[in-house]
Inverse folding.
């Protein structure tokens, strides 16, 4: 998950541009923003406990994944097994990836409109849902609310 400054890749989801968004794209942006905040909060917690997360980690990507998982397990272990307060004192082809990434993002956007939707997402993006019964219509991989 990333903001607009990063390139869209299959392994980096970024929001749609903020111009002329349809409902599917607005919901995707909202849901991605929520997910980013949760991840940033989690890393903030880990960084406050483990110094390795306060600077650039100079490991191979697969080792970084191991470090993050180990720190998460250790954090959870300390929360469960240490007395209150004690744990807190421990210190390819050019362009192809972009097409694949757009496909991944569109699949998530469609999912958030259908089986992955949450009741409040329509209200958050300012879409009126109380006055009419809405159903979801999928056309060419994009979901649209239909009255």
């Amino acid at each position: 998950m990333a903001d607009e400054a990063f390139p869209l890749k299959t392994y980096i989801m970024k929001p749609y541009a903020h111009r002329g968004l349809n409902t599917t794209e607005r919901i995707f942006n909202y849901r991605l923003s929520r997910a980013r905040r949760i991840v940033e909060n989690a890393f903030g917690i880990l960084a406050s406990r483990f110094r390795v997360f306060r600077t650039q980690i100079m490991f191979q990507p697969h080792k970084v994944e191991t470090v993050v998982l180990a720190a998460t397990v250790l954090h959870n272990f300390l929360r469960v097994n240490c007395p209150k307060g004690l744990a807190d004192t421990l210190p390819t082809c050019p362009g192809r990836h972009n097409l694949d990434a757009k496909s991944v993002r569109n699949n998530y956007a469609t999912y958030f409109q259908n089986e992955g939707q949450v009741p409040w997402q329509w209200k958050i993006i300012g879409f009126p849902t109380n006055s009419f019964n809405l159903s979801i219509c999928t056309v060419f991989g994009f979901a649209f609310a239909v009255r």
Notes: The first helix runs from residue 23 to 49. The CA atoms of residues 29 and 84 lie 38 Å apart.
